[in-house]
Structure prediction request, 171 residues.
Amino acid sequence: MVRWHWVVGVVAAMLAGCDTDADATVDAALPRGESLGELRQQAREALTRYDRAVIDAGGAGAVTPTPPPWNSPPGIAIESATTTGAGTQLTVDFTGAIGPATRSCGADYHAESVESANAVVVIVIAQHHNSGEVCTLAGAPRTATLNLAQPLGKRPVLEIRQGQPVPLTLK
Prediction:
């Protein structure tokens, strides 16, 4: 039997107040710091730090946001992102389980975004085969694709754990 276990990462549509009853049910089964609501809050905080860095830089030049004040925040960090000319669809690359959720120690992934006018944060969510399995720590390159609320334009894509920009490729 496949169990739904949510583990998360970060990027794109201001989701303040998007905590539904379905989220609360999923969140109740997760350890502190790994609920979808907490990850959305973490993404909003990363955007706030980035927006502050843009203001401090006067809107010009390279922006370096301040990392979060915690040691090891939860979430799946994305490594890079790819978008098309229209910039409304984003594919993110990250390290995840070797196989799909239909296999032992596997996982399926999807992503959602939290956006501001200045940046996008992607949250990667994993559906694991079985949360009680003992698995190796081996990882594999994985991707997840999501639709943005607004075209990406010149906004950077930030990873959720440290809120830093990732390399972006235009297809």
Q: What stands out?
A: The mean pLDDT is 80. The longest strand covers residues 107-115. The radius of gyration is 16 Å. DSSP finds two helices and eight strands in the chain.
